[in-house]
Amino acid sequence: MANRFEFNSDGSLRLPEWVAKKNSEDENRLKNHRCIKISREVVSFSAPKRCRLHITLSDAMKDNRFVDTIYNEFKAGASVPSKLTMVSEKEFEIEIGTDFKRCTDCSSLINMYREFMDGCIIEHKGSCTFEGQKKNFCYEDYFS
Known about the structure:
alpha+beta, globular
């Protein structure tokens, strides 16, 4: 399958069908289901590096207290400096400061929200370059 670029009549790049479908499904989930959307962005690429998590609650979520509760639990055990800001009733920003464990602490915070939501999160990587642990487990690498 060759990569082809298609353009709209106004000259803008047309999204591939699978991307448009995923965006539509995510938008539907945010309107009709209990879920949260987390977008990861790197705010400063040079030292001291900082990142920001944008958290958006779906329309079906009526109580937003869990965002602050989980954040406070995270902050108590994390080594990275962070700050939670409430943008609106449905939107929050968490700034992750510079630290050796910045990326792993950030990932653990996202996993805490994922666990609370029983996996019902929409995660957008944004400008984050962190790959996390490799998922390719090979028995021979560890036990041979």
